[in-house]
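Take our chain:
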Amino acid sequence: MTSHVEDSGSSARLSPFEPGPDGAELFTAQGIKRAWVFAVPMRVKFRNITVREGLILQGSAGLAEAAPFRNYPPPVAATWFAGAFAVAARGLPVPLSPVPLNVTVPVVDPDTAARLVRESGCSTAKVKVADPRSNLEDDIARIRAVRAALGATGKIRVDANAAWSLAEATAALPRLGEAAGPGGLQYAEQPCQTLAELVELQQVTGIPVAADETIRLGGQLTEVIASGLAAAVIKAMPLGGPARAAALVADGLRAAAPGGTSAPLLVVSSALDTGVGLSAGLALATQLQTKAACGLGTLRLCTDSILTADPRIENGFLYPVETLELKGNLPPVSPEVQQWWRNRVEQVAAGFARL
């Protein structure tokens, strides 16, 4: 996943967005009145992302975010756009409530990792591992620092973003669990690529495993729920918006019930969203009434915001903002980025035309 860096320093960028002819027709059909393209720099490189890009759409019910990553194929991006169209047209499905958060710890040195945990106020941490910029010993040192900062009762998750083979994960996870201290890992998120590998890994190591990419890219939510995995990471916009995501979870739980499989822990998470997308995540977490710490605290990873006021992080919880309002004085997005998103919307429009 490569980044396309704006020369913007630490400032967010925002420009009115004009779609191409097919995109304009799609936007009109979906009730989109205005659109903007944004670029927000990250504080640290996060899975090779240094600038988060995407579109903000305005419909009759308000703002929605459509920000599929650049390396996502058009059919996957189309689901994300479908969710944004639904939110822009109909709004969020439920009133928003505060939710508990995990702090996300990217690939940083142990001292920085500990500082991020202490500053967050969270009692759960998700630590990125298996990144090309670090090795297993670096990951172990980062996890030990996180444990020291959390204290004995805090929970630690790790996220490998499907980077390991089954053999690599089988070797690495016990060492990471040992580094996490008493109680080990709450779960390991997407250590391997396929659902079959995830299930085997959990059985062989005894370490709880969660699925993420298997759900948001592979479309296997029902299969994950029925598989016996310990947790399922649910992201609102990649699944077509909060209302559709909640419906898919309910369908999956009903389908799995006759088999007697224990329901997985449901963890609502962010896809490096702006405050607009995080509000959709808050709606999903509120609707699912999950008690698990949510991965919705990712605004801390950004240097700036496109909103006048973002959902607020306080004492390990995310609180909704009353009104989503875009800043009016941000520098413009580069012509290259605007054109890339124009081309992306044309691709998405072609997919919608075939439906």
